[in-house]
Amino acid sequence: MERVPRVLVTEAAKQVIDRLREEHGDLMFHQSGGCCDGSAPMCFRKGDFRTGMSDVCLGQIHGCDFYMSRSQFEYWKHTQLTVDVTEGRGASFSLEIPLGLRFLIRSRPYTEEEQNHLVPVEEG
C-alpha cells in the first residue's frame, strides 16, 4: 500500500486555490484552532502566517503547504482531512472570504490499515 495522505482537497477547492494564486501568488493553509471561524482551514499568502515549533505540516494540497498546531494535531491525528469550499462568508482573515466563499474541512477516521501507511508530519 502506498502512503496515505493526511490532507486532501476537492476539485471545487482547487479551482478557488487557482483563482487566489493568480491574485496573491504562492499560498499556504493553516488549520484554525477555534478563533474567529471556529475550526476552519485558513488560506494565506505563503509566509504571511508565521509557523513555528508548535506547528506541524501535514502535507500539501494543490501545491500549498497545510499546517496545524501540534496540540490540535494530537486530537486529529487519526483523521484524514479534506479541504472543501462552500458559499457563504466566514468570519476570518482567510483570502477566499472576499469572494463570498469559505474553505471548510470534511473528515473521516483512518482505517486500521491506513494508520500503518500514513505520510509522516513535518515540523513547522
Describe this structure in words.
This is Acetaldehyde dehydrogenase. The chain has 3 helices and 8 strands; from the N terminus they run E-H-E-E-E-E-H-E-E-H-E. By secondary structure, the chain is α/β, with parallel strands linked by helices. Strands 3-2-5-4-8 form a 5-stranded mixed β-sheet. It is globular and about 40 Å long.
Q: Give the fraction of residues assigned to helices.
A: 10-25%
Poorly predicted residue ranges: none
Our measurement of the CA-to-CA distance between the termini, rounded to an integer number of angstroms, reads 27 Å
Largest sheet: 5 strands, mixed
Counting helices, strands and paired strands, the structural category is alpha/beta
Radius of gyration: 14 Å
Quaternary class: single chain
Give the strand tally.
Answer: 8
Give, in spatial order, the strands making up the sheet with the most strands. 3-2-5-4-8
Strand content: 35-45%
Q: N-to-C SSE series?
A: EHEEEEHEEHE
3D shape: globular
Mean pLDDT over the residues: 92
- Counted by DSSP, the helix tally is 3
Pfam families: DUF779
Organism: Kroppenstedtia guangzhouensis
Protein name: Acetaldehyde dehydrogenase
InterPro entries: DUF779
